[in-house]
């Protein structure tokens, strides 16, 4: 019995020694982890809180942005003049709609009226071209009575059909402010020179 007791004590002593060594190891590791842990406040140093700037911030507008109103003498979009597709396959090279047609055409050809504005319609669709023409007529009327429009001969169009050329001339023939047009240069059907009605204030 005594031998068994001595063996038990010896085993308990070994176990206690082993546990003591384990606690020592854990204590060393805990101290190491504590040393490695960064003290953020100490590392950052003294922090000065931001002051309230008391800056006024205007409230965001709740209404939608409205477009700038156009000048009263500008042409409103609903007043644009348009012509439909179709009509003459080949409008005439010259045109006049009043009783002095021959005189108007001759004067246009001779450069009697100074060309106060010109426009090139290359690259526009048919609808865009008519929008540009409307603005061009108004622009020209403010400066004189004669302008020049380059529409091209239409040789690059599908089927070699001059779309913009025919559209432009049909448009001019029907526009109420256009009195006449001619091809300004002989042998070149890619442009027309136009004559407009004089403003009423000049007629009175």
UniProtKB/TrEMBL annotation:
Q: Which SMART domains match?
A: SMR
The record places domain Smr at 119-197
Quick one: where's region Disordered? 30-68
UniProt cross-references to SUPFAM superfamilies, sorted A to Z: SMR domain-like
* InterPro entries, per database record: Smr_dom, Smr_dom_sf
What is the recorded name of this protein?
Smr domain protein
């Amino acid at each position: 019995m005594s031998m068994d007791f001595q063996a038990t004590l010896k085993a308990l002593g070994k176990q206690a020694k082993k546990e003591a060594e384990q606690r020592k190891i854990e204590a060393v590791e805990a101290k190491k982890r504590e040393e490695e842990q960064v003290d953020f406040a100490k590392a950052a140093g003294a922090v000065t809180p931001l002051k309230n700037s008391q800056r006024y911030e205007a409230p965001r507008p709740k209404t939608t942005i409205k477009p700038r109103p156009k000048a009263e003498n500008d042409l409103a979009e609903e007043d644009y003049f348009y012509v439909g597709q179709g009509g003459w396959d080949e409008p005439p090279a010259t045109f006049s709609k009043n009783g002095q047609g021959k005189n108007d055409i001759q004067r246009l050809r001779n450069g009697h009226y100074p060309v106060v504005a010109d426009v090139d319609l290359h690259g526009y669709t048919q609808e865009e071209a008519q929008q540009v023409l409307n603005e061009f007529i108004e622009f020209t009327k403010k400066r004189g009575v004669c302008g020049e429009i380059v529409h091209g001969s239409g040789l690059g169009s599908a089927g070699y059909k001059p779309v913009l050329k025919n559209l432009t001339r049909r448009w001019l023939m029907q526009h109420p402010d256009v009195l006449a047009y001619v091809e300004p240069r002989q042998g070149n059907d890619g442009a027309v020179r136009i004559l407009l009605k004089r403003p009423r204030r000049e007629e009175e």
